[in-house]
Fold each of these.
Amino acid sequence: MSTPHRVKVSLPEANSRGYEVLVGSGLFASLATALSRFCPAHRYAVVTDDRVAELYAVRLSRMLHSAGHRTDVFAFTSGEAQKTRETWSLVSDAMMESGCGRDTAVIAFGGGVPGDLGGFVAATYMRGLPLVQVPTTLLAMIDASVGGKTGVDTPAGKNLVGAFHQPQCVLIDPEMLQTLPDAHLRSGMAEAVKHGAIADAEYLDWIEDNVESLLAADPQALSRLIMRSVEIKAEIVASDVMECGPRKLLNFGHTIGHAVETLSGYALLHGEAVAVGMVEEARIGERAGVTAAGTSARLRRVLTRLGLPTSLPIDFGADAVVQHTRLDKKARAGRVEYSLIQDFGRPFIGPAGVWGHPVADETVAEVLAGVGSRG
Amino acid sequence: MSTPHRVKVSLPEANSRGYEVLVGSGLFASLATALSRFCPAHRYAVVTDDRVAELYAVRLSRMLHSAGHRTDVFAFTSGEAQKTRETWSLVSDAMMESGCGRDTAVIAFGGGVPGDLGGFVAATYMRGLPLVQVPTTLLAMIDASVGGKTGVDTPAGKNLVGAFHQPQCVLIDPEMLQTLPDAHLRSGMAEAVKHGAIADAEYLDWIEDNVESLLAADPQALSRLIMRSVEIKAEIVASDVMECGPRKLLNFGHTIGHAVETLSGYALLHGEAVAVGMVEEARIGERAGVTAAGTSARLRRVLTRLGLPTSLPIDFGADAVVQHTRLDKKARAGRVEYSLIQDFGRPFIGPAGVWGHPVADETVAEVLAGVGSRG
Ligand SMILES: NC(=O)c1ccc[n+]([C@@H]2O[C@H](COP(=O)([O-])OP(=O)(O)OC[C@H]3O[C@@H](n4cnc5c(N)ncnc54)[C@H](O)[C@@H]3O)[C@@H](O)[C@H]2O)c1
Ligand SMILES: NC(=O)c1ccc[n+]([C@@H]2O[C@H](COP(=O)([O-])OP(=O)(O)OC[C@H]3O[C@@H](n4cnc5c(N)ncnc54)[C@H](O)[C@@H]3O)[C@@H](O)[C@H]2O)c1
Ligand SMILES: [Zn+2]
Ligand SMILES: [Zn+2]
């Protein structure tokens, strides 16, 4: 293994050390060492899903056991449909059954689903256990594992119940992406495009220039993508841990995206829904006069080249989508706030430094229904 | 209403203002004003139980509505048996149903059960809503509402799932205790005795000298008790928000207490179980040579005068109790740590400033089984 690249996530709390995100090809093989160093514990509870477990859990347990770490694996059925309070209860109960106490650290191992669910278990088990994120999907590596958001879905919508719980460290081995299904690799790319769109126009160019090698899962291209995306996310998170300011920017594409994802019954992957969401929200921004003309068209082009959808499924009513955005966590005082960009790398900041832009439901409905010119 | 007495709870986090505990006879009548001042919000979700709702919810809603606050009441069946993940889910879902968003503040209204459960809803709803504690039992006033611990029980034991979530303020009106059943008033006294035992020998004397007026629910005596207990709890909490040091002291009586409470199937009230726990843990301390001789005898006398039990129910096996202490959150690395006192007002602090004293299971079993002299 080459020396891993390290990205520091600084936290503003006076008594917090922040934590490191380690990115290194082959890092998985030295997980035991990394754990001893960054999150020493009497025992480890690995929270994962059955697919990841099938591919990697035996190796993981063996490594940890031979390093002398007592380790139990708690695996649930893979998929967003399991990211529920019920699964959270079952995992917590199984941990109690096996006697995990406050001397246990949780390893959230897998994509964003085990990441969010394992993180929420760690946040709430005996009022909080130390947590290590070991993401294995692109989406989880560049987005879900960094920032401390944990939680589960409820029948009313995504991530409606959860907590902020920062990990002790995040350990990323890009080689684990070799086994990831193509659709999930593409889905993860949507968040990288988002990072370029909100924070770094050059990065967006680089992604567009490297679409082929990225989609071919070229390890070097993927490592570079992961590092830059993690840097961007870490910077934004560090500036605003509790999500009252700049962090809202990360919601670009997600107000519409979440609605679309829920309405599809999770037939659309998260990144696919976010791809649609970014294009639609760029169009909303163009219509509202805050986003430069041509932004949605450029996004549409990059996302299409990455094999991602860029418009609402035809059987989706605009009104149903609007309805769904109203329960969004970003809805305040009855109005829905959108995180918009002025141009690539230039977030929109409203009067008095307010992040987020309230948009009237009718405007959103018109844009979604395709009224007016398509970007 | 006389001007309320204010106790400040300072929090060590750099970016936290801490919060105030207001204690005042008749304060309930000016709740709307206090809320506008200490926790302004677009709307309020009152989480309570059906008994408290029956007694006070109509008045509360009316007051808040006429002050222009949009308010919804979410009441569940009273009792510890309802302090579960299921009730937490139902309340969260009902709040979603009625459209509560991030602009909502939660009012945890009632005893420690609505306090802990409403607090956990606030901690986890959309990853955290502002919270106000309005305790209505003595136990909740002097203990549960201050300190930010929230959570629910699981089949494996009490408070095994939860989060730290500090309120914006705590509003206490001792007059609400006039409707509290006698057994619950006595149960609350156990925690006041604990405060005296761990932090202030004079306060313990004062309680013993005022047993009659306290049990007669004399408003002045109760106000004084609440204020002193809140001060003690606030001081300890401020010194150790995350419970890694001095705060452990508050667990005095609770390692055995929780085991006894669970084993009784909650037939024993929390304070009753803690009364037993304090006497037994004082005896454990005496046996271990850390607690002054006569401590358990004195505790037994005060608690008996308060009408509280002081020994294990005869049908409880010592081994079953020991077994239960092993899942306690205070069990680390397989050993159970007890928070002991040297003498009244003098906590035991081990070598190297370590709080908590590991005690071998056999010693605990012997003491519980009554082997050796009764204190
Ligand atoms: N917490 C956050 O800040 C944050 C940010 C973005 C997304 N999310 C959440 O992340 C979730 C989506 O994450 P996801 O797309 O990773 O979903 P996921 O965890 O379900 O993973 C997708 C699929 O890939 C499989 N898989 C995982 N790693 C693999 C590997 N290395 N090889 C082969 N198969 C593998 C999984 O078993 C699963 O079937 C959503 O629930 C979303 O809300 C959270
Ligand atoms: N969070 C903490 O730090 C902390 C500390 C101590 C205890 N607790 C928790 O508190 C709980 C016990 O609290 P509790 O004893 O208040 O239980 P509780 O909330 O069940 O209240 C006891 C009973 O009194 C009724 N009641 C409440 N206020 C009343 C009033 N003013 N008039 C008439 N009836 C009233 C309730 O309906 C209930 O039936 C336990 O679950 C315990 O774990 C938490
Ligand atoms: Zn996302
Ligand atoms: Zn207690």
Amino acid sequence: MLRNDGGQRAEFTARYFVESPDPLQKVAETIAGEQSSGTFLELPGETAELKQRARARVTRIEPQAPALEPGLHSALVERRGHHGVFHRGEIEIAFPVDNVGANLPTLLATVAGNLYELGELTGVRLLDLDLPEAYAKRFPGPRFAVAGTRAKAGVHGRPLIGTIIKPSIGLSAEQTAALVDTLLAGGIDFLKDDELTADPVHAPFDQRLSAVMPVLHRHADRLGRMPMYAINISGTVDEMLRRHDDVLRAGGTCVMASINWVGFAGLQHLREHCELPIHGHRNGWGALSRHPGLGMSFPAYQKLWRLAGVDQLHVGGLRSKFSEPDAAVVEAARACLAPFAGSAPVMPVFSSGQWAGHAPALYAALGSIDLMHLAGGGIVSHPAGVAAGVASMREAWEAATAGLPLADYAAQRPALRAALEKFGSMV
Amino acid sequence: MLRNDGGQRAEFTARYFVESPDPLQKVAETIAGEQSSGTFLELPGETAELKQRARARVTRIEPQAPALEPGLHSALVERRGHHGVFHRGEIEIAFPVDNVGANLPTLLATVAGNLYELGELTGVRLLDLDLPEAYAKRFPGPRFAVAGTRAKAGVHGRPLIGTIIKPSIGLSAEQTAALVDTLLAGGIDFLKDDELTADPVHAPFDQRLSAVMPVLHRHADRLGRMPMYAINISGTVDEMLRRHDDVLRAGGTCVMASINWVGFAGLQHLREHCELPIHGHRNGWGALSRHPGLGMSFPAYQKLWRLAGVDQLHVGGLRSKFSEPDAAVVEAARACLAPFAGSAPVMPVFSSGQWAGHAPALYAALGSIDLMHLAGGGIVSHPAGVAAGVASMREAWEAATAGLPLADYAAQRPALRAALEKFGSMV
């Protein structure tokens, strides 16, 4: 453990897992150098001052057990030859705020840029980062977050129960509207497009919006609140702004974007224009995260997207069809709900393989109802239909928050009971 | 090998490496389903028509030797248990163009989205993709590419010899201008900012532009052509457009962006507004590419960014400080120079650890001089100074293109000879 003094310089920090044939101290200094003042030319008289203002500092080193084999291949390591162990551990680096300013692409270039390619590293993963509150406030941050999402949806005191329009892609605008009608008749709080459906020829965005909004309004009149539909506006910057305006004008209450591919500049631009909560779809996340010694962990990822301004963010699902273990899903949701540099918590969105039976485990893990619980089959394949599927989800959350076993609570509740009977083997 | 008939449906294809406990045919169908029509609700009478228009097709399966251990962890595989081998191979999937349209974020969501997280997969990497020319033409594509870059730089018949402003970050605007002056006096064709330097407090963008442009104009007057300076405009969408306009108005000839973090929507927006070549910096590329069974290979990556409109793209360097083997660097540069769906070749940018000695290997590998060859130490640490460093690079390319051994060509050329003496151990 090593701590330096940053003096009066405002700094943000990034924490990494690293692995290298070089000792941790050396490789940490390599990263700190590469990601700040880097290679030096001789500039007589200037070097000390330049280092003082621009050079990143290694602020912590926590060794782990070394490895006998490298986690990732490196041509540099192979060329040099290496016959010892590969050192592993966590390091923390403090960067001067003034190097970057309120510039998201450059913040990413600093904490998640060329360092991934450094030949000295056979493992490098951004685990987390921290920003001084005064610095974080210079980024947009979520405009709606949990509280604004709840206000727009008119749902309080329980999770938002939702589902995804399926088939993923292929429904016409009219088929989409008919499905939306069926789902809302069943009591769904929240609907979203699939990430693959943005502006397909078989269901162009404009037609989809025109077809679904009357259905939403009809149910809003019945409910006294507008069900939330995260309509996928992903596209060019101009398209996203225009589609947002159309959704807003039509009375919609949410927009969705494929954040990794829209990118930080595009998402921030949307956020600055946007008068609706932004549903952040993280498709492509696996490419950044699936190798434990590479890429990024979700606690860092969600902070970066909170700075950009997402209000709702996908976190996977317990025992889902996806590769992440439940512990990672829970960690992701906790991160969304945790304070971060003065920014409001954002709504974690659980989906994939979800049903009523997951409510107790989620509540036990999070101690919160501030989440979206999206079920596909768990709602639409309920033996008594969509309404019973939704009821089973709500009842499960009632039981979970009251600390009652699902089976007991289900005794007098046929919807939950039928869900337990049909899906019970999936817990 | 398996080929289906796509009939009249226009399709684009994506080729993947995959690994799975499931047989290749099964896992390929899983991916094709997940990334198109996906989960089906019962929609009587509609299913066949919907599949016909929206369902992706598996068009090729090429098995490789199976693995005994999984390349990536999957909670789903662990939960199910698996005692056999892990099947490996390449697959190709054909997607209907009409599912996506001219929508880059959704194209990415389709070929590089949730599939990375599928629990059935213990390896998944996008290797390449192909688009029908008529489809590719609906995206912006590079406006300048190789030919437009050469025209703006006024350099023909040889590679552009360049360097990077170093220290990476920390120089004041005035220090930057002084360094630019020194480098241009030495005959540099091309300069770029470090990706870490966009709008730092110690050298704000506006001050940097104001300081360097008079220097560039002074050398332009001397040379009869404007040296190209890729000034880093990365930031918000509005900042990038404004900075581009400022560069253009000041007579600059290139802008640079951190493409992964600006993102596809932001970069496309810049491209549509942009009247200068876009220098695409790929920092963060390692996170997407370093594990061979995950993420993306460069042939796919560069096509996606060519669609968005980059004109120049980083490809690493031979025997560099980075982790990629030389073969990957050469493959990347070849991909940039190869035709793609009617779009012009883009300029590959070589940097890191480069010097004159790399010219013959690069020319042998590429058979082209359409590239930027960026050297740091290889130019500024030349024993006879910057001008001799630049001369050594040009002389090395003269020798390479003439098919003459460097040592022979250096006999009457002191700059090249001194480079070989100083850096010769680095080849």
